[in-house]
Protein: LHFPL tetraspan subfamily member 6 protein
Organism: Cloeon dipterum
Amino acid sequence: MATSLTALGILWAFLSLVSALACSTGFYLPYWIKGELTKGFATYFGSFRRCNYPVLNDKGQIELLEACGRYSTFADIPSPWWQATTVLVGVGSGLSLLLAVTACAACCISYLIHGRMAKIVGFFQFLSAVLIAVGVALYPLGWDNIEVQQACGGQSKPYQLGPCEFSYSAHLLVGGTVLLLVCSTLSCKASRLKPGSFR
């Protein structure tokens, strides 16, 4: 297998893929925070999806639906902070996936990434980590919306969840973001080729 990556560069490519998958999975799955609508009926929230929520049945009565779904439109997301989080984390996760594919392709294709190109990819990995981190930091500002209030016993407010708790998607996002930052530094030593090696 021909590659222009160093051993550290191959580790960088692998960790880039792991971090991108962690961020994308954490973004898509709605298990950021966990609360209870009624005793023993857990509900989960992400920035644009939720699981186990109340709906009106055919008789006009409220029943609890055990399913996950997204909000019907972007405007239906219950907080402008969650809308901003959706955009920032979505763009950051998408960018990290694109960069991970590029890094992994460099494991198989000679001359795909040289030293300067690896540093550019590292810069964009840093940028995607910043986008995700800012999005995650904005998310708690929306904890005062009515849906979270209902699930957290009316005790949630910005940066205070009350009896609700973080769930595993939030941990995936934080871990993936930290790994993206590590990858952005590893990129400096990822390639053994110098610019101009192709002439």
Summary: The mean pLDDT is 91. Residues 80-105 form the longest helix (26 residues). The longest strand covers residues 62-70.
